[in-house]
Amino acid sequence: EPSVQILLSIYKPDVDYFKKQLQSLNDQTYGSIEVLIRDDTGRRDHEIEEIVKECLTDVKYKWMKPDGKNHGFVKSFEQLIAASTASYLAFCDQDDIWDSNKIQALTTELIKTGNLAAVSDKRIIDGADHVVMESARHQNPHYYNQWCTGDDITGKDLIITFSEGMTMMVNGDFCRSILPIPDGSAHDQWALACAGIDRKVSYIDQPLVSYRRHSANVSGILKGINSKKDYYALRVMPFYKTAMEFAERYPGYDGNDNLVAFARARKDGNISVLRKLRYMAPEVVLFESAMKVCPDFLFRLLLSLVRKVG
């Protein structure tokens, strides 16, 4: 069996959630697995190490040496990718639950197709493990849940992530080759976009992971946004920088012209151009069109409404 490394970045995990995540890794049916762990507190936590030892009894694991720094989850995963050696890599958070056949199904798909990445559907669970949504693909009609194997998702994925890391598996050599990750992008977003350049991403229409949604989630499109200034600084400009870097590093991608035009239009607040390119991210164009014309106090109200809908 080709080797698989599960890249697990942790930061002060909830113990109950963490144990359930680890147990689901331990229950994987695929044989050739190693869990590579990095604690982003930058130090050894003996209590957490004991939990890992208690839960990971059937799979190999090893810890990255602490460096005394908290890098944030993206740079933490970047270090894990750089330290990896396996044929295939799977990104792992600290509070989800994987189906026992997840690694087997994704590995089989990559071997069969020769693609660079494979992604599965997901179910949504809450903090008490109750299923909130059995299938994101079939119960959430947003365009970023409706793509298929071989689609051109690269430019769109750089705007809104088309799949979270815990649903993905990527070719190891490929993933190591796309480092460093731009400052404005997430590790999973960047990997999926780069794999999609030549349409080499598979989609498995089956939930293989339970994605836990709770108040402490690190990700979230509006996390940390409390004003128009915040949104511009934390969402618009990082995307602009990422799009420019992507176009420079991968000049052969045939969607670069529209990607760059969309990025510049967001930076400049050019709603006319955004509307012409709205197929790339219709919800973003709608949101930023509304943001353009409303004062900051109304924008704050709009944020609260969007969060309730989301």
Which features characterize this protein?
alpha/beta, Spore Coat Polysaccharide Biosynthesis Protein SpsA, Chain A, 13 helices, 9 strands
Describe this structure in words.
- The chain is α/β, with parallel strands linked by helices and 310 residues long.
- It has 2 domains: 4-212, Spore Coat Polysaccharide Biosynthesis Protein SpsA, Chain A (Alpha-Beta Complex); 228-309, no CATH class.
- The chain is 44% helix and 17% strand.
- The chain contains 13 helices and 9 strands.
- It has helices at residues 15-26, 46-55, 73-83, 102-113, 136-139, 154-159, 172-177, 187-195, 228-249, 256-268, 271-276, 282-293, 296-309; strands spanning 4-10, 33-39, 60-63, 88-92, 97-98, 117-125, 131-133, 168-171, 201-212.
- Strands 1, 2, 3, 4, 5, 6, 7, 8 and 9 form a 9-stranded mixed beta sheet that branches.
- A hairpin with a 5-residue loop joins β6 (117-125) and β7.
- α1 packs parallel to α2 (46-55) and α9 packs antiparallel against α10 (256-268).
